[in-house]
Design goal:
There is one protein chain. With 379 residues, the protein is an alpha/beta fold. It is 34% helix and 28% strand. α3 packs across α4 and α11 (319-336) packs across α13 (355-367). It has two domains: 3-121 and 320-368, NAD(P)-binding Rossmann-like Domain (Rossmann fold); 126-310, Dihydrodipicolinate Reductase, domain 2 (2-Layer Sandwich). The chain contains 13 helices and 18 strands. The longest helix has 18 residues, at 319-336. The strands form four sheets. A seven-stranded parallel sheet has the order 3-2-1-4-5-6-17, with helices on both faces. β4 (68-71), α4 and β5 form a beta-alpha-beta unit.
Amino acid sequence: MSNIIVLGTGMVGSAMAVDLAKKHQVTSSDFSLKPLEKIKSKNQNINTLQIDVTKKLELISTLQAFDLVVCAVPGFLGFNTLKTIIEAKKDVVDISFFPENALELNKLAKQNNVTAIVDCGVAPGMGNIILGYHNEQIKITDFECLVGGLPKTKKWPFNYKAPFSPIDVIEEYTRPARYIENGKLIIREALTDVELVEFDKVGTLESFNSDGLRSLIFTMPHIPNMKEKTLRYPGHIEYIQVLKKSGFFDSKKIEINGTKISPIAFTNKILFKEWFLEDNEEELTIMKITIKGINKKGENEEIIYDLHDEFCQETQTSSMARTTGYTATAAVNLVLNNLFNEKGVFPPEMVGKHKVCYEFILSYLKDRNVTYIKTLINA
């Protein structure tokens, strides 16, 4: 039994702590007391600790008692927190999805003899693991990942609920989208190239450009075509475009009756209520990964992975927490079982390239009823 600390006790952080507590000694930590009290009520065996991750020396001291760290802090805290964990010489699995390039910490991780697996969620995360595995099997020409978290019950006008802060979603809608086309890096405005896609069980969804390739741009430069698109119910993008074009996402403050406020702060406050996902509100995760390439026989091959996951009634756990969190806890067990022990910073594709890791993670998820359906075409 290993001693693990989970930094961050949000929806996903809590789900990871509960999952890991089945086999390990787990401590959940957070800046706020309320989420710690909440997780303690879910599982009395989980220890709780109030901590401020921005207090570097205090965090380093605290981490010394643990075998491994799971980092699930908000994105804006992620990079510096990961750096501190590495400086504390602790192995770590990170899902904070910060905007900075985690590979900048690779040298530091090697110097400190640390294994750091980053971006280890559903997307980024599982899509990378699958791509990393098949990159070892065939010569890949095309990779596309369509993914979205959606409420089961549509509510006009947005037909959307967020398991995290609206400001993080708005960031996805405003940050330029990077993808690879014919071997070249293409940058386009987010929310563009809207396409309608049919899915079993949910029907028609719309996909749009988002900046989801992240580390793949740097680790898989030999793949000529790579793209990730986000999925929403039809009509969502039009309403978002109206807000965006009308200035509701602007950060420059404006004055209203003598008070200065940024439009995006106002929008975030309004949408927080509109998009708030209740604890037991049913939602689902949809993902479709398409990989095309040439196999070792010289034949064209197309591999498709489909995921349809829903809120778990039995454990009262959201689909986004399950699909994101259990990928990360699978990686935790990979490290603790010594199935992956390389030193440095590793995005998931660098883990999935190893067949034993790819198979372990898929099996771990399947045991928790998170099942990826694989289809092989033109083999």
